[in-house]
Amino acid sequence: MAPAHCGSVSADSVWSRDDALQRARQLVPRGAIPGRHRCQELTVGMGNYRYRCSVEFSQPPAGQQADQQTAPQPQPMSPLQGPAEAQPSP
Hints:
Layout: E1 5-13, H1 17-26, E2 33-43, E3 49-59, H2 62-69, H3 83-86
């Protein structure tokens, strides 16, 4: 059995720590398992801050990952569609 692969991704935000963390989590590769995270507050001028968060991730061995990719994925709903419009009625 092949070992799991791991790595980390980072993202910055000028808005907030939570925004930087959300952006970093969105960068985790599809099928990967997010792990620990860490965030830093960086001073970038008088009274101005930038937030940087990193998220560690691991990927399951190739055999397990293939099983996950064959599962059907839900289709995203358009922001203009309501719940009744998303599915055609019989």
